[in-house]
Amino acid sequence: MSIRLRLTLLYSGILACTLVVFSVVLYVLVGRFTLHWQEQALAEEAAQILTQGEFRLTVIRTPQGKVAIPQTFVQTRDLSGQIVSRSINLGSYELPLSDKGLAALTSGQANGWLEIVRTDNGRLLIYSRTVVANGQTVGILQVARSLADLDRTLTTLRQYLVVGTIVSTITAFFVGWVLAGASLRPINRITQTAREIGQARDFSRRVEYEGPNDEIGALVTTLNEMLTELQAAYQQVEHALVAQRRFVADASHELRTPLTTLRGNVELLQREPPLPPEEQRAILQDVTVEIDRMIRLVRELLTLARADAGLRPRWEPVQLGPLLEDAVRQAQLLRPRPIVRALGTRDAVVLADRDLLRQVLLILLDNALKYTPEDGTVEAQVVVENGCAGIVVRDTGVGIDPAILPHIFDRFFRGDAARRGDGTGLGLAIAKSLVEAMRGEIRVASKPGEGSTFTVLLPLETSVGDGERGDAHRLVAAHRTLP
Ligand code: ADP
Questions:
Q1: Spatial separation of the C-alpha atoms in residues 429 and 300, rounded to whole Å
Q2: Where would a tag sit more exposed on the chain, N or C end, judged by fewer CB atoms within 10 A?
Q3: Which domains does the chain have, with CATH numbers?
């Protein structure tokens, strides 16, 4: 059942119930009051009859007579209940008096007695009272009036009330139906638009509404806000998909190159007649270098894939001085060159994941050593600035062309100077992912021919939920041995 029908039935039902209750109360009250007035009028008439001069039980002249009011029937009885006289308008009809009434009146228990009896001409209201002469009860006076007029009025009232209730309810149903339809029309339009948006996946569309800012206005605003969010999320997913496709294409290209080289080298080794032993040794050395490169590439790809899946750093306070020493030592194992430790705030402590941060430092230090000639300098320093602390790695190496500077954090991006080297173009992309996972920032300043400065900054204090402290170790394990 539609909301429109339910609402309309509800209104009409409530209205019908109210009208029924009102009509019943009105009908009963009108009936009671009019009967009460009739009773009072009869009692007054009886009193009037008795006070009009000398009243004798046997003399009653009505309707034209002077003692009774027309349309009032009068009858007298003696104390035994026998009828003594009757008004002419009664014809042959005798006003009844119940035994109970007679007993109450003659015993003095009651002065007046009211009864309603049914006759062929409708209901009759009879008032009986005692007649007292010289202090003695001498008989009973009965006055009666037809209730036919009252009953007719009540019947008409009842008919009006029934018809009025039915007509009002039916009218209320139709008016309610139209009003409910008008109020629900914007909702139907919203449903229609939402359906069209869903079918066409056109999240740039908005629901149009020009009404007041009521409940429906609020619904439309919320829906449009939700569509804005959805559009942003959809675009993000689209961008992510494009990036992922490019990443997969780049990754397969990067893996194919060493594999092709390997295959060429293996074919050379299989050649008949065999190559001279020195050449074979050189080829095997190339093979080893390529295999190492592939291993590194695969490991880095794995690290990035895990970072993309969502990193949860294992937060702990990390003292930067000792961590830098550690990273410098490790970097020098691969490229044994001096690294100058400039004076800094060695005991600065950040909240970070120790292993992830060491990994970042290794990448930066390795790059600095890689892109700085033997006579250049590589310098590392702990710094504190604006509520953050971090490490600066400075070199006097080849520097970076401003044209490529915005791209060096892209995946598989390699500058000209790097093409001949052993890089994969993934180091800085990994460093950026890890630093961002730790809510930090990484920046670079560089001049070609003069050198580069990489800065990693992390908040000195940060509130991190317990749930975020786990899981980082899994990622760390994957790239601990880099590069
Ligand atoms: P790669 O494996 O090529 O070093 P990275 O992602 O670590 O990959 O670096 C991307 C590019 O940024 C490098 O190819 C290089 O051109 C440039 N680069 C990074 N660090 C330095 C540096 N210290 N000096 C000069 N160029 C650098």
A1: 10
A2: N
A3: 3-153 (3.30.450.20), 215-308 (1.10.287.130), 316-480 (3.30.565.10)
What is the 321 CA–ligand 1 centroid distance (Å)? 25
pLDDT tens-digit readout, 94-150: 999 999 999 999 888 888 899 999 988 889 999 999 988 778 888 899 999 989 888
How many Å apart are CA 289 and CA 130, to the nearest integer? 138
pTM, two decimal places: 0.54
Q: Which residues contact 467 (CB under 8 A, 6 or more apart)?
A: 312
Ligand 1 midpoint to CA 194 (Å) = 49
**Contact present, 129 and 113 (Cβ < 8 Å):** yes
Pocket lined around ligand 1, Cβ cut-off 6 Å: 367-368, 371, 395, 397-400, 408, 413-415, 417-418, 423-429, 452
Check residue 453 and give its pLDDT.
97
Q: Is 313 left (phi over 0), alpha (psi -120 to 50) or beta?
A: beta
Atom number of ligand 1 nearest to Cα 372: 24
**Which residues in the chain land under pLDDT 50?**
61-68, 462-483
Atom index in ligand 1 nearest the CA of residue 422 equals 2
Nearest partner of 50 among 94, 97, 93, 111, judged by Cα: 111
- Could you identify the atom of ligand 1 that is nearest to the CA of residue 417? 16
CB of 440 closer than 8 Å to CB of 458: yes
180-221 confidence digits (pLDDT tens): 888 888 888 888 888 898 888 888 888 888 878 888 888 888
Predicted confidence (pLDDT) per residue in 254-294, tens digit: 888 888 989 999 999 998 888 899 999 999 998 998 898 88
